[in-house]
Specification:
There is one protein chain. Helices cover 46% and strands 10% of the residues. The chain is of the alpha/beta class. The protein has a single domain, classed as Aldolase class I (TIM Barrel). It has an eight-stranded parallel sheet with strand order 7-6-5-4-3-2-1-8. α3 crosses α11, α3 runs antiparallel to α12 and α9 packs parallel to α10.
């Protein structure tokens, strides 16, 4: 069984017991949640702390390309950038991972093999998730066979919104098993879940089913990661560890583009889940353009000059 399944065997015994548990979670005070997220977002940090925060944020990025026009060459270039984000400063941290479609895993792995940069692959008919379970599992196994260290799956939002929680649970369990040794990130597509209560329920459902990470979004819809929905998920992993002893990571994705944004999210992590999550094993940014802004701000701190976008590679 996945790491947390045994502790919740009674909860997952039937659709009715699972529904009773998820709907028994405390309701979310939306006004209070958004006010706290906004308040934490106004925290200022000193220059020395900013330098640390920038390097930490770079080390937490899942550098991502998920386009229909992706080519092996583009993926190899992105993997090279993950290994060496700033060729003018070898002290720049590497990113945590490169995130690609399953058919591009081998291209990324060829560049990253032997390094500590992971290859993450979306799977399970990303981004819509509208496919039969055997297709989703084949998608997952293909990615793992090609060398993926991490799998980013999407839940069946239709089943979740219809209240078919046991179907979602069993699908996550099946993908977890198909992932083998690869760590599993479970994407909720928070922009489609409509309410904060649903995001809280999805967070607990994903963790009970064995998610190693819970992730906000695919980056393919109008509303992606926000301080408020990420704060809610950070509260969930904190409370889950307090109850079970099991630590689960969090990955906000989509719409985080600036250093200022990244620092806000790091403050959320520190003030909500705590220092144990301030590490790329437990917190990631799903991003494509964020790295360039972090690099420009890093150069400015180092040289006193804002070098501009011409001095960083374009994805």
């Amino acid at each position: 069984m996945p790491h947390s399944a045994t502790a919740f065997a009674d909860v997952t015994a039937s659709d009715s017991t699972l529904r009773r548990f998820l709907h028994g979670l405390p309701g979310v005070d939306a006004v209070g949640l958004e006010a706290r997220a906004a308040s934490l977002g106004t925290r200022s940090i000193k220059t020395t702390a900013k330098a640390y925060a920038i390097d930490l944020a770079i080390s937490m990025i899942d550098l991502t390309t998920l386009e229909g026009a992706d080519t092996p060459g583009k993926v190899r270039a992105l993997a090279g950038k993950a290994l060496n984000p700033d060729p003018t400063d070898r002290a720049t941290p590497r990113t945590a991972a490169v995130c690609v479609y399953p058919d591009m895993v081998a291209a990324a792995k060829a560049v990253l093999a032997g390094s500590d940069v992971k290859v993450a692959s979306v799977a399970t008919a990303f981004p819509a998730g509208r496919a039969a379970l055997d297709v989703k599992l084949a998608d997952t196994r293909d990615a793992v066979a090609a060398g993926a260290d991490e799998i980013d799956m999407v839940i069946d939002r239709g089943a979740f919104l219809a209240g078919d929680y046991l179907k979602v649970y069993e699908e996550i369990r099946a993908v977890k098993e198909a992932s083998g040794a690869a760590r599993l990130k479970v994407i909720f597509e928070t922009g489609e879940l409509s309410t904060y209560d649903n995001i809280r329920r999805a967070s607990w459902l994903g963790m009970i089913a064995g998610a190693d990470f819970i992730k906000t979004s695919t980056g393919k819809v109008g509303v992606n990661a926000t301080p408020a929905n990420t704060l809610l998920m950070l509260e969930a992993v904190r409370d889950f560890r307090a109850q079970t002893g099991v630590q689960v990571g969090v990955k906000p994705a989509g719409g985080i583009r600036t250093t200022k944004d990244a620092v806000k999210f790091l403050v959320l992590v520190n003030e909500t889940a705590g220092e144990d999550w301030l590490d790329n094993h437990w917190f990631r940014f799903g991003a494509s353009s964020l790295l360039n802004d972090l690099l420009m701000q890093r150069q400015k701190l180092a040289t006193g000059r804002y070098s501009g976008p011409d001095y960083v590679t374009v994805d």
